[in-house]
Amino acid sequence: MSTQPEFPMESPLLSDQSRGIRTKARPVASWREHHGWSAAASLRRLMSRPVGTLLTVAVMAIALALPLTFYLLLGNVQKMGEALGQNQTVSVFLQPGQSGSSADLMAKKLRDRADVASVKVKTPDQGMDELAKMQGFSGALHTLDANPLPFVLEVLPRTDVNADGVDRLVADMRGLQGVDQVQDSGTWRQRLEALLGVGERAVLILAGLLAVAVLLVVGNTVRVDIASRSEEIGVLMLVGASRAFVRRPYLYAGIWYGLFAGVLAAGFAVLVELALAEPVAKLGQAYAGKLQIDVLPPWLLASVPVAAAFLGWLGARLVSAWQLRKAA
Amino acid sequence: MIRFDQVSKRYEGGHEALSQLSFEVAAGEMAFVTGHSGAGKSTLLKLLGLIERPSHGVITLEGQNMAKIGRGGIPKLRRRLGMVFQDHRLLMDRTVFANVELPLMIGGMAPNERAKRVRAALEKVGLLSYERQLPATLSAGEQQRVGIARAIVAKPMLLIADEPTGNLDPTLAVEIMSLFAEFQSVGTTVLIASHDLPLIKKMKKRVIVLDHGRLVADVAAQEVL
Ligand SMILES: Nc1ncnc2c1ncn2[C@@H]1O[C@H](COP(=O)(O)OP(=O)(O)O)[C@@H](O)[C@H]1O
Ligand SMILES: [Mg+2]
Fold this sequence. Notes:
A: alpha+beta, Alpha-Beta Plaits, 4-stranded antiparallel sheet, rod-shaped, disordered N terminus, B: alpha/beta, binds magnesium ion
């Protein structure tokens, strides 16, 4: 067969038995095809006005990057708190006159507790040595005849024990016979935990608000886009396009905006990580030995563009449904 | 094919654009709807494309009561119609080819088959060599022909045209009308609104005359002088 035109000039243009579009039932193929076309066409439209697109994407990216950055900071403060908390021993001062053997016995009892990781017995001599090492004290100490320091138990709570648990431990130890006083930085620990709780909640609220902002930005952009193309939409509807068909390129535009903004936001977050890495490491050295920046997990970074694309789609979907409502 | 039964149309806040209109158009027939400006010609065609709904009466298309077609059914109906507009309603940022391709794309036809059909339709209206151009680079008559190509490319059962020769010079107008007659000769039902009486007389087809929304004359093709 040679390449025969569908409407040969000599034969009728519209033969009776072939009315309408005889699609050989290829709904899936044509559906896929139109999705591909819509995705490409909407991308071309975005690229054809790069400045506007970039501005929209940048605003969305900043809105997405903000909660991400706060989350990053929060994670690091939390980690640092934990790291500091790990070295946070509770000092139990025994009454003067308690012997070394009773100190050892008490230490042994405390070690058996489930909430205690380790107990170190510090003798008065060791205490004196420590004091002596501290500048300015050595001269004064030599003038003392006897060692006035008591035995001290350095009790380290297990890391999985929370502030309340440590409080209970401290209270128990205060009640022990032969204990003079117990020094604990529990309030510090509690405050940090409470603060982190507030921070976590704040990040969640912020993320919710900014997700709404992203939705609004996409929605408004798509709204303007649809309004400027109302004529084209009218023509499409007149030649038999369904609402879903008309809407499709705008939904893809929303997806593109979200995707680009998400990638940009993840990029911002990585930049923030890089900028924070050095100061955090320094801070870690000063406090707890080695402490590295807590980076955002890859799954979170990867899910930002996905979630943003969903938000973009949702914004476009809501606005287009509302705007095409009156189109018929 | 088309049956109007006591059809009235009152626009919101307006007077009656169509009053108790009753007529039938058989399948394969070609008819003109004429009358003064504001007689209701465009309204009549809009009812057929479900761009407007009648206030009263029943319109039947191929035996189907059009009132039964819901919002969701409108696209499907329009894919069976070919509509030509006075202002041609082309997409100015797409090529002639893409404009004509539109109904086929919406219908979900395969790309290679689409291309064949689009070229055949463009050839029919004598614009095959313009397929890559944008409509704005074409003359008014050529743009109107692109609109016609788009209307016939999906091989509709009914072709309706609202003042298709409205802004064309007389020779071009005759050409366009002959094109419509050609579609009728192969079985398409054709309904054209026009106020160009001399041209209508030349065509020797049935003429439905409206006056203030009322049918005042229905002249059979043989009786057109
Ligand atoms: N959308 C509309 N809203 C209100 N009145 C309209 C509308 N469209 C048309 N009309 C009125 O209906 C009557 C018929 O209009 P139309 O069908 O356009 O007539 P024709 O096409 O014969 O000139 C006119 O009086 C016109 O003003
Ligand atoms: Mg009119």
